[in-house]
Amino acid sequence: VTTRLADVELRLGDAVWGRELQDLFDVAWPDGTRAPSGRVLDASLCWVTARVRGALVGFVNVATDGGAHAFVLDTTVHPDHRRAGLGVRLVEAGVAEARRRGVEWVHVDFEPHLEAFYAACGFGPSSAGLLHLPPA
Ligand SMILES: CC(C)(COP(=O)(O)OP(=O)(O)OC[C@H]1O[C@@H](n2cnc3c(N)ncnc32)[C@H](O)[C@@H]1OP(=O)(O)O)[C@@H](O)C(=O)NCCC(=O)NCCS
After folding, report:
1. What is the whole-number distance in angstroms between the Cα of residue 125 and the centre of ligand 1?
2. 17 has a pLDDT exceeding 90
């Protein structure tokens, strides 16, 4: 599949929760990551979807502390549509909305091989901590 960015429609706050979003996660995430629920998205600053002729091919969630900080989560592009610039477009759209809403700092964490991807989205390096609390 050759993805032309001109064919991609980005939507802010698209009605996307449920099966459609989980189907995208099932093909995009090798580790069985669960798609965020409607309850999770209700607490978000915003989320952005990407569609090609109506079909969901991309997603990003931007969480918020309610103030100056926002957090990019669950950046996802369908494997058939990768390396066409769509992931960067999604993150940039989420960040633009965060800026519009007065956010000053946008955080993200990622595996080392995605450093170039988040650099392309405008993120610089930072030391950060992460604590995993697995469900009991
Ligand atoms: C990470 C992901 C969202 C990237 O989406 P994408 O649409 O392919 O990204 P883009 O086309 O916008 O990439 C822009 C640049 O980022 C870098 N990049 C993107 N994916 C990369 C990868 N897997 N490895 C190394 N560099 C990568 C490249 O420099 C790329 O530019 P190039 O194609 O000209 O070389 C996608 O691979 C994905 O959904 N992965 C599975 C889920 C995941 O791990 N999400 C990240 C959560 S933190």
Report:
1. 17
2. no
